[in-house]
Amino acid sequence: MANGPVWVFAEVVDGRVAPGALELLTKARSLGAADVEAVCLGPGAREAVGELGRHGASTVYISIDAGFVELLMGGPGADTLAPLIATRKPELILFPGTHDGRDLAGRLAAKLDLPVIANGLDIETGAAITVTSTIFGVTQVVRTEFGERRPALALFRPKAFTASALPAGPAPRTVEVPAVIDERHRRARVVDRSTPVATGPALEEATVVVSGGRGLQEPANFELLHEVAGLLHGAVGASRAAVDAGWVPYSMQVGQTGKTVKPTVYIACGISGAMQHTVGMRGAQAIVAINRDPEAPIFKLADLGIVGDALTVLRQLRDELRSRSG
Amino acid sequence: MNVVVCVKLVPDPNTPGQLDPETHRLRRDLADAVLDPGDEFGVEAGLQLAEAHGGEVRVVSMGPERAVDAVRKALAMGATKGVLVCDDSLRGADALTTAKVLAAAIRREPYDLVITATESTDGYSGIVPQALAELLGVPAVTFASEMSSDGSLLTATRQTERGSETVVTGLPCVVAVTAGVNEPRYPTLRGIMGVKSKPLERLTPTDLGLAASVPTPTGQTVVSVTMAGQRQAGEVVRDDGDGAHRIVELLARLRVI
Ligand SMILES: Cc1cc2nc3c(=O)[nH]c(=O)nc-3n(C[C@H](O)[C@H](O)[C@H](O)COP(=O)(O)OP(=O)(O)OC[C@H]3O[C@@H](n4cnc5c(N)ncnc54)[C@H](O)[C@@H]3O)c2cc1C
Ligand SMILES: Nc1ncnc2c1ncn2[C@@H]1O[C@H](COP(=O)(O)O)[C@@H](O)[C@H]1O
Known about the structure:
The complex is a heterodimer. Chain A is built from nine helices and 17 strands. By secondary structure, chain A is α/β, with parallel strands linked by helices. Chain A has two domains: 6-187, Rossmann fold, CATH 3.40.50.620; 208-325, Rossmann fold, CATH 3.40.50.1220. In chain A, the strands form three sheets. Chain A has a nine-stranded mixed sheet. In chain A, strand 2 and strand 3 form a beta hairpin. The model of chain A has no long low-confidence stretch (mean pLDDT 93). Chain B has one domain: HUPs (Rossmann fold). Helix content of chain B is 26%, strand content 28%. In chain B, the strands form two sheets. Chain B has a nine-stranded mixed sheet with strand order 9-8-7-10-6-1-4-5-11, with helices on both faces. In chain B, strands 2-3 form a two-stranded antiparallel sheet. The mean pLDDT of chain B is 90. At the A-B interface, helix 4, helix 5, strand 7, strand 8 and strand 9 of A face helix 3, helix 4, strand 7, strand 9 and strand 12 of B. Strand 12 (188-194) of chain A pairs antiparallel with strand 9 of chain B, so a sheet runs across the interface. Adenosine monophosphate binds at residues 6-8, 36, 38-39, 42, 61-63, 95, 98, 102, 116-117, 119-120, 123-129 of chain B.
């Protein structure tokens, strides 16, 4: 690995540093770079510095302009980072594969003519920088080597790495960077935001995820999933068919175009097991599937498959869990 | 409103494709290939806007000769004309190269809106829409699950990790739609019959004036391709009234209860 620093793009969500940034900083520490640095854009950036430092950032570049949240991140983010990249010459920039992470990496790639690899699961540095990523919905694993252009841009799937903090050390250096927000970026504005109120643990962090699909037949039946999840201190997820039907919000979708979860147990109820769904949950330690079709593809990866009616099994499961806890 | 929809040919997602272990490229000969189901939503969205505001829907694709099938399907759904950029030098093109080619093909005629899918079903990098917007110098609204326009401004609902946001943007712009944004129409018999009479151009990077910068000489080389470790199927039992109990036993074994 050459001498330039490794950067991590860090997001702040609801006043908290997003887990992806901490996972990537943890990995960045092991890459043999002279410096690991973080970049954090938006109003909450200053408050994020301490936590980024505890996960390995020696310098945090912040830009606290409100434009980063009132406008879309991609354009303003790329224009703000381009001059900084030119002066600091990072070797490599790691991005979480989130919506903003992808927007920013795609913009930077085109703006600075840089190579970019998405869906990373792992990265190695030596004579070359090599990223392991998946294609075709994690059925195949590809190793791709970056050529000579720098910085190399790499996006990682959520939970590709496990975050761990360092023992207390000196606070990182904070460098405030002027936001570069071109008039043309002001043409696209975020005029409204809505966040459904969540109860219980976040889907991505829960140790038990109980998910429902089209096989649940109607939105009211998701109540049963909530009851079971509640008894297990877990979270409720869904397949896209359930989201598209308008039964549950998109924030509950698991899969290729939704969230990636890695719980201890994933319970798929009335979900067929399409590749685009399994991409988001196959990392679970154990998978349970309830489906009335014995040929459902979900049974090919379930540790325990129950062929039967999801609602019947869920009601019994709820009752048995209640009597255990009661 | 003149809309350009980017459409890609992908291996049928129901029969996942294979990579050639020698060339590290997709073995298109092995898989059935289809218009990316994600792009069908884009074509439908473009048709709806053109129907509401007048104008035409052009489709643009980069891919092997066979990708002409994806373009034809979009034409059969109702698009007015198609462009396929096809050249040996583009085999295995990375996201940036793809965006450069698509941008050059799009720029040849005036446009108000470019629609892509959020991510392709095979590569699923999700990078192309943003790179395209940067090259075209326009905003990009990704993860759009709803959109409407009054002809000069476009309003989109954008899915976020936590909920949704409403974005208002001027035109031209790039919008990357999510699956489920609409219900794609099936080509009618008349639509299918009409494809032959619609313009379908085949271009090379040279035609687009791109030869020197495409493919992007960034050097990004695939060094190996392997099958991912598959999960083993476990036990599958018919529910005879003790299905729930079996689940409880497993939960207890894993110490989550
Ligand atoms: C570009 C793209 C991206 C996508 N991204 C995602 C994604 O992120 N996440 C995702 O989930 N999908 C995604 N999909 C969709 C995916 O391909 C499937 O269509 C979807 O996952 C199917 O959802 P489902 O299993 O709930 O519905 P279905 O496939 O309709 O399956 C319903 C299942 O329920 C079973 N069933 C019915 N009744 C009962 C009952 N009473 N008890 C028990 N079982 C019952 C049936 O046997 C069946 O197996 C994507 C598709 C595309 C094209
Ligand atoms: N070769 C291509 N031809 C036409 N459109 C493409 C091509 N590659 C990507 N796209 C569009 O860009 C979207 C995102 O692609 P990707 O960044 O590869 O995930 C796709 O869903 C398509 O709409």
